[in-house]
Amino acid sequence: MLRTIEKMAEDDLENVWNNVKYSTIGRLRKTFQKHPNCFFTEHDIHSVLYSITKEGLQRSGASTERTRDGHRVLLVHHEYPTPFRCDMHDHEFRRAGEEERTSKGGRYQRGHYDLVILNPKFVKNDELDIVCGKDYQKFTLGMERVKVEPLIWACEVIFFPRVKKLPKNAIKTIEQDALKVKETLRFKVGQDIDFCKMGSVLVFTSHTAEGASNLERLVAELGQEMGLEIIFSQARE
């Protein structure tokens, strides 16, 4: 099946990735809306998102690929590191320069995405040490020679359960992840190649429509202002 993916025209591949993304988001939202009390934590949503994404990739025939040095890897992953260091202090987000230091004297750390889909062409063209992204120095050097987008999709998830009041800084929490995704989408590697093809921020709350109406409005405004896909979902009453 992977050979079929490799032989597809770029337009056909674009449709495959879009179908996987939107069918995954649709299934996850329906599951949450139907069974909101099954989700106690944000990590519960991450787990279901991972499972649905993996199933979608399997149906498309692109769930795994072999690295250039012969290691077969899954294309979907949690906690994949950003290609840049960043300052995420006090619900803010700023891409940090390589030589910048924190108040404690150490360099700023990389962020992580809640879920990504790796580009199978990127996996096939690079060694495992580059593909997994753990070693920042190796990863940075590897990014200088890439010829395709390393990531197909980067996704962030935020969850506000009704067992707690909606925090006053809820929209700032969402904005922080949105800025990370937006910076990712405009980050360039290799010879002016996008690091990531698609990005989404998924916001969930089990608060009622009445209790979360203001947050829903603010999320819609934020998405429009940033030109970013930010999707709001709440439990059905």
Task: Describe this structure as you would to a colleague.
The strands form 4 sheets. Strands 3-7-8-11-12 form a 5-stranded mixed sheet, sandwiched between helices. 43% of the residues lie in helices and 24% in strands. It has one domain (2-95, 107-231). The protein is globular. It is an alpha+beta fold. It contains 8 helices and 12 strands. It has helices at residues 2-7, 10-34, 42-60, 120-125, 128-131, 136-143, 170-186, 209-226; strands spanning 64-66, 72-74, 76-77, 80-87, 94-95, 110-113, 115-118, 151-160, 188-189, 193-194, 196-205, 229-234.
Helix content: 40-55%
The neighbouring-strand order within the major sheet is 3-7-8-11-12
- CA-based shape: globular
- The radius of gyration computed from the alpha-carbon positions, rounded to a whole number of angstroms, is 18 Å
Order of helices and strands: HHHEEEEEEEHHHEHEEEHE
Structural class: alpha+beta
Which percent band covers the strand fraction? 15-25%
Q: Got a strand count? A: 12
**Mean of the pLDDT scores?**
93
Low-confidence stretches: none
Q: Distance between termini?
A: 42 Å
Give the biggest sheet.
5 strands, mixed
Our count of helices gives: 8
Count of domains: 1
